[in-house]
Structure formats: C-alpha cells, structure tokens
Amino acid sequence: MDYEEMKGAYSALFTPYTKDNRINTEMVGRMVEHQLAGGLRGFFVAGSTGEGLLLTLEERKVLLEAAVKANRGRGKVIAHVGAVRTEDSVALARHAADTGADWVSSVPPVYFAQTFEGTLYHYRQIAEATDLPFMVYAFNTTVEPERDAQLFKIRNLTGMKFTNSNYYSIQQLQLKLDAPALFLSGKDELMVAALAMGGFQGGIGTTYNLLPGHFAEICRRVLDANDVAAARPLQAEANAVIALMLKYGNMSYAKLMMRFIGLDCGTCRGPFPPVSEEQYARLAEELRAQGILKEVR
User: Percent of the chain at pLDDT above 70?
Assistant: First the structure.
C-alpha cells in the first residue's frame, strides 16, 4: 500500500445537528468544502469528536453518506465504526465499504471485554468484514510494542490513530512490525512534536475543524520541507485556541467555536451539559479578544 497518498492532516469531523436534533447534512457539506479549501487531506467521521457513540446506527450511516457525497473523492474518508456491540461495528464497516469510504477505524471494545483478547477478537471481526484498510484507534491507551505488534497481523489492519503522547512507544512498535503501516497522531496540541519525532504521516484532530489551514501547513512544513522551526508559530496559535477550548471541560464549547466561524453545528448531545446563549456570548467575547479565529456572523 502507498501510504504517501494518505499523508497529511485530517479533521475529526464534528457531527452537526439541525434545530430539531437531526443530522444536518447540508452543514456536513459546508464543513467538507471549508476544510478541503484549507488544505486538509480528509476526514475522520463519527469518532470521539463526531460523537459517534452518541448517534444511532442509522444516524452514523446518514453522516458518513453525507460526508462521502460532499467529498466527491477529493479527500480521504476514514469511517470510525467503533461500537459497544462487535456486530454493530461489523455492520457499520460493511456500510462504509458500500458507501465509498477509504478506510475504517475503531476504538477498542467499549465497556465489555476490555482485555487484549477482546480487542483482538473485536478488531479481527471488523477488519475481516471488508477489504478496506483498517486503522486502530488508540484513544488515550498505552501502546505496548511487543503485545500490540500482534494486532498488525490481522488481515487489513495496517494503521493506527494514536491519541497519546508516548511517541517512543510508537517508535518501538514500528521496529517490531513486519511491514510499514500508517500512523496518524491524535494529539492536536503536540502535532509538531509527533511529526518531528518521526514515524507519523500526519494527524487527526478536533481543532482541525477550526484551523484547517494551520494543521495542513504544519504537515507541509514538517513532513515536506523538514522545517520544524517554521511550524512552531502555527502550533502556538493552535494551542491558544485549544487552551480556550479545554478551559470549559465540555466539548459543546468546541462545537460553538464552529458557530463563531460561521459553521453552526449546534452543541453536543447528552451527557454533555447544554450551553446557554449567555455562555456562548461570553465564549465569543473571549474568541474576539484572542483574535485567532475569524468571526463570521
């Protein structure tokens, strides 16, 4: 497989809702256009940022179909199919293949069978359900190189989204693999560090929705131009936005930043608490004072 074509920055795409809490497919299209114009390589659909586990299976299918349709083959679409039931993940993976996604991905087992044996079984069922390449979604989990090299013996399992900061463990894991694999970093605030460490072909993140140009350019400067110093100012600006996003401890504030830039995605579903108009107004004032995101009324 040629991983060069997968190199770059991918948004962990927000799931936008209409006023009556349905998937806003029109806004999916607008987001895709905005992010492709900013230089992103593609989209990670229905992951953590996309509230995948808070959507019904039918909603996840509608969301992916809207993203693939809007993308029109220009970027790469990675469908996150993680679910509590392995059978649901398998069904979503088959739907992703039928819909035209480029890759599938999944978190490890959720709630039940949270063992390595459970993970092997869960991943094998998903990976073998289609001919699409499969990407492990290591979400705040510890990578154990000797153990996790076994995952890459599963048919079609040829990549990992690594949302952690122990890049040494990834370096050691790669030394134990029989063939090259695709590694994308999931820590927005450490993107430059991950790419500078080597072994990563790009990244996937929440903030890429808001600052697609920053993260696309970080990839270009580090991966193509080998100029880490030139990428640092972009990382610093992105991190200022991230710090404000994390200040509230509620992902709805991240989605409301999309409203600030003219792409209203609504807020998050429960268990995330609702955010009032007064709270949004205060956030907007902070964003204006910060001056990094451009307000679109």
Answer: 100
Identified catalytic residue from 10, 123, 137, 167: 137
List Cβ neighbours of 158 (8 Å cut-off, separation of 6 or more): 1, 133, 134, 135, 152, 179, 181, 182
Domains in the chain, CATH or no CATH each: 3-227 (3.20.20.70)
User: Which one of the listed residues 7, 61, 76, 161 is annotated catalytic?
Assistant: 161
* pTM (2 d.p.): 0.97
* pLDDT computed for residue 142 by the predictor: 86
pLDDT at 153: 97
137 belongs to the catalytic site: yes
Residue 248: partners with Cβ closer than 8 Å, 6 or more residues away: 283
Known catalytic residue: 3? Answer: no
The string of pLDDT tens digits covering residues 183-209 is: 999 999 999 999 999 999 999 999 999
Contacts of 90 (CB under 8 A, 6+ apart): 81, 125, 126, 129
Distance CA 238, CA 125 (A): 38
Mean pLDDT confidence for 29-56: 98
Size (the chain), residues: 297
Tokens of 32: 């895709």
Q: Which residue has the tokens 């991240």?
A: 254
Range list of β-strands (E), 83-187? 103-106, 134-139, 157-163, 182-185
Listed in sequence order, the residues at least 6 apart from 216 whose beta carbon sits closer than 8 Å to its beta carbon are: 8, 9, 38, 39, 40, 41
